[in-house]
Structure prediction request, 701 residues.
Amino acid sequence: MAAYRLNLIQSLFSVLVFCKPALTLDFGQSYSAGNSDLLAPRLYTEHDLKSKGLSDHVSFHPEGASEGFYCHYPDLKSKEWEACNDGADSRWCWLRQLQAQEGESHPKGYTVTTNYDNYVPIGIQRHYHLDISKQTIAPDGTPREARLMNGTYPGATVEACWGDTVIVHVTNNLDDEGSVIHWHGLRQFYNNDQDGVALTQCPIARGSTWTYNFTMLQYGTTWYHSHYILQYADGVLGPIVVHGPASAPYDVSLPTPHFMSDWVYRKAEEEFDNEKDPVVRGSKADNILVNGIGRSKEAVAAYNGEDIQSLYPITEILPGQRVRMRLINGAAGTSFIFSVDGHSIEIIANDLVPVEPKIVDSLLVAIGQRYDIIIHGLDNPSPSGNYWIRTHPADGCNTFRNGLFNSTDSTNEDPLDPRTGILHYGHSSATYLSLPDSTANTITDFSCARISEQTSLRPVVPWSISTTPLNNLTLSTFYPSHQTENDEPYGNYTHWLLRLDPLVEKQGGVSFHNPLFANFSTPSLLDFTNIGQGANDNVIRLPYSSKPTDFIHMVIDGSLLPSTNQSDLDPDVIPLLAHPMHWHGSDVVLLAQSEQPFDPATSMDTWNYENPPRRDTIMAPAGGYVAVAFKPDNPGVWLVHCHIAWHASAGLALQMVIDDGQGMVQSMLAGERMERLGKGCEEWKADLGKVVDYQKEESGV
Prediction:
């Protein structure tokens, strides 16, 4: 049986190469004792299976998949294995053996309780082609030139099954910009060069195609987006769906994710000028979109009962039905409170981590976060059969052109309508074209922290966290801050940064007080020995370890720097704002989230080390802190950054170097992988003088 353990490849990293046709190493579990098949790349596409008559394997259409989409597991023979996700009450199970092995009392397989850090089924290759181009669109009636994937907003869905290898060919058809595409939340285990950021590759030159290659070690809901300057705020993004098991039963799964975003009428680079303007004080959004659909008040007022789907996305449901929905927040600057009038929702996954089911009446979805939820249909819906789906900007985590749009004390002169979609019951008495008259759920907390909610989600696959980290926590406690012009002590805001306490810098002889600026022509991964030499490299070096009990601890503190004289401190130096922080290359556990400043003497006494929430994007509350932990088992150069696009572009980021100090990262990339990265940089450099390169004021991340 061609399958094997993830945790054995630590000693085999040197064989990870980028092959042609594009293949990566893939990881699965062998249930046969003594199996020595450690390396088994996914050799087949769906076309190969059909053309070569390879039909004696597990193959099935997962619930909610697009038409004609099938999961295939070529190495799991149909006489020995079967799909078990074949009914509403069996969603927890994905694949199972038909008979137990000798000495075993029950069949084994891949379920929601399988430790996906160690075991993954072997699927097939799936190829996707994405083209980036300019196109004028008007998602809410106001036209603007956007940058799109395959001509749509959001872009085409990348769909796969747990264990598939996905090969994405991205062509840059822009006439004046490069691009890189990041696969948000995918760990890229031992696959750092596929992360799609300016630290790991040069931008894709105009007219060139770059191929990304990665294996779906996780399953659930996520998204891809440009990590080149501010392109994702201009439209370069799209959803990713990875079919797999679930932690609660449901009847149907919606084929299209619920993709929430804000929308800016100006080109994002032009709007970024407001981020650096001390008078305007921050970039602004103009509207809210769901699945690329928005509306003006005039359009709603003029609605005559026809073509309602041009104004609102419609979600269909039947009485008593349990409907799985995938939520994605792909906004540039707005976190949202999601709710459905009169309905409860059941959380079954956050980011790409299955969680123990939890029922709520509303849910904070911060920028970059994703949730898989189940909407529980009413047994006796209203006669109209229509209920509002609401996407309300979270208090303190939104900036719109007309002012803040908060639940109370809003400064917005012309508030937007948070009613952004319709849940429609398809029973005989429903009036499909009528607008809902439903009443909003009673929501008492519209904040963008919602700490009790965020800290209560328990992963199905538990982790126990070491209380003793491998690193020095004092040198891993960072403060979102404003850089000052010419590094003067106060005022004159120019950029954001993640900085150490200046007193710690002085005592430790380290310098960490600049925004991160990427060098597009010399990515860190290709200049590994010189990382940290630049004033704007913002590097934290962390020791590699494959031991499952070893962890790194890190604190992001959104309060004032403890060593500053707060009575004299200009508030522009460290504005008290919430920051949705995103970690590349790792899932992180939430040890603590507090609206109080971090106190190294007492705060750690309250931390949760037993199966805390686990995800890749976590909100650092305004004036408070988050403490996280992660396994340093994924060698490479990885970004940590605020996912407010304007803040990331202003430098609010750092790069983590995870290495064993013995050349592990360089050895991992030796050969074809490094040659390929080098050729991409040669193309970029040859085209560099012909494009409008990013300005000095923009971080490149």
Helices lie at 46-51, 268-275, 297-301, 451-454, 502-508, 645-649, 664-669, 672-688.
